Amino acid sequence: MKVLVTGGAGYIGSVVTQQVLAAGHTVEVIDDLSTGHAASVPAGARLHRLPIGEAAQVLDSSFDAVLHFAAKSLVGESVSRPERYWHGNMVQTLHLLDAMREAGVPRMVFSSTAATYGEPAVDSITEDQPTRPTNPYGASKLAIDHMLTAEAAAHGLAAVSLRYFNVAGAAFVEDGGVLAERHDPETHLIPNLLKVAADERSSASIFGTDYPTRDGTCIRDYIHVVDLAEAHVRALDAAEAGVHEVYNLGTGTGTSVREVIGAVREATGHPVPAEEHPRRPGDPAVLVASGQKAAEGLGWHPRRTVKEMVEDAWTAWER
What we know:
Elements: E1 2-6, H1 11-22, E2 26-30, E3 46-48, E4 65-68, H2 75-80, H3 82-103, E5 107-113, H4 136-155, E6 158-164, E7 166-168, E8 171-172, E9 178-179, H5 189-197, E10 204-207, E11 219-220, E12 222-224, H6 225-238, E13 244-249, E14 255-256, H7 257-268, E15 274-277, E16 286-287, H8 292-298, H9 306-318
Parallel strand pairs: 1-2, 1-4, 2-3, 4-5, 5-6, 6-13, 7-12, 10-15, 11-16
Antiparallel strand pairs: 8-9, 11-14
Helix pairs in contact: 1-6, 3-4, 5-7, 7-9
């Protein structure tokens, strides 16, 4: 296949681009580099420095699919500046779909999110769980899911939405380089813990120690970015004309904040001191995916552990 990857200079997009190339496909990347890095685009993929709303400059009938990662993704910012998320996520994706339809590109795999579920009252989240996002980021991603459902029904698009849980880890390239998290600001737990281990921060923060969990801290489902990327390659092959499928991507196993801190201490040999703070509003106690549908529909099974995620992220940090 010939595939266009939007946001292919970002953390997840670059790792997926690497995997798609390894699967023997031809890849071109669109990224405006507002948060991505040109150096992260794997060798063999052609980079177009463009916003996704201008994809019509690149797309033509030679393309078989679009993998869509480009998005605004800061939850806090989405609350304070929701207009950036309606425009940057919803409107820009509508322009992308228009360009795909005009060029006759038949399939899309979309980077969705567990934030579409909001604060579910179940411990194992299936795809039929009600979608009740609690912030404009999750709402904008859910709106795109609805767009894809309608586009598939009306115009025959083969569409797959992959709803991620907590992505971590790193990928490595043959020349010794790394594809890892490089966000600014950084909001994810593991890279922020690694900053403490690297003596860039004095301590970590634990928000909430009184949750009804095994150690009082939040439990999340962490998935290695390479496992995640492999699911996208499978989704390209599984997409069916006129159908929009949604799959959760997680391991089905939860890890608490304290357990992640313990894994970072073990991997780095650093004590990683942690300060306790009150709960943050809107943080559910447990968010864990059911992976049954992805196993059945994509033949996909995550293989890497939290220990491996932390070790890979630390190796990337050291490099």
